[in-house]
Structures are given as C-alpha cells and as structure tokens.
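RECORD TYPE: inverse folding
INPUT: structure tokens
STRUCTURE:
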C-alpha cells in the first residue's frame, strides 16, 4: 500500500505482462456524480500514463477522503505511488 494526500493504492503482483486497474469508491467519497467523476479521472490518468507505470501489477486505487478530483494531481499521484508500491510487491500465482 502507498498513499499521499490524493490517492491510496494497493497492489498485487500478477503473472501477466500488463498492469491492470481496479477502482474502489465508497459512498463516503460523495454522491454518484462525484464518484463517477473520480472514476473517469483515474481511468484517464491510467490510460495516459500506462507506458510509464510498472508492469505485472494489479492496482486497486481509491481517492483519499477529502481530496479534490483534479486531473493533474491524480495523474502525478498515480505514477509516483505505483512506482513506490511496485518496489514492495510480490508476485502471486
């Protein structure tokens, strides 16, 4: 697990050459439109930064409570935290 003021990321190593994304947004994040906005931003950041992310990971991402859904901060946090958590992860079968 790795986190900062914007995102919390949990990761598991997988036996695939690609990195996959999972999202977890509870009602504590906000109403349905707010949660959908967060999901769109996180997915877009993942899509744009896919080549810069470590491979062989299953990332489960959730926003930090009280964080703002600003694309630039989400994109930066996703990249930094994915690399941080990749150093500590082990591969499962």
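DESIGNED SEQUENCE:
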């Amino acid at each position: 697990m790795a986190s900062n003021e914007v995102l919390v990321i949990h990761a598991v190593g997988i036996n695939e050459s690609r990195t996959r994304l999972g999202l977890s947004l509870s009602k504590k994040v906000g109403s349905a439109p707010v949660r959908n906005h967060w999901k769109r931003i996180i997915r877009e950041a993942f899509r744009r930064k896919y080549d810069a992310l470590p491979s062989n990971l299953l990332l489960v991402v959730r926003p930090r409570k009280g964080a703002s859904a600003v694309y630039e901060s989400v994109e930066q946090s996703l990249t930094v935290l994915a690399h941080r958590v990749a150093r500590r992860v082990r591969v499962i079968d």
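NOTES: The CA atoms of residues 26 and 70 lie 18 Å apart.
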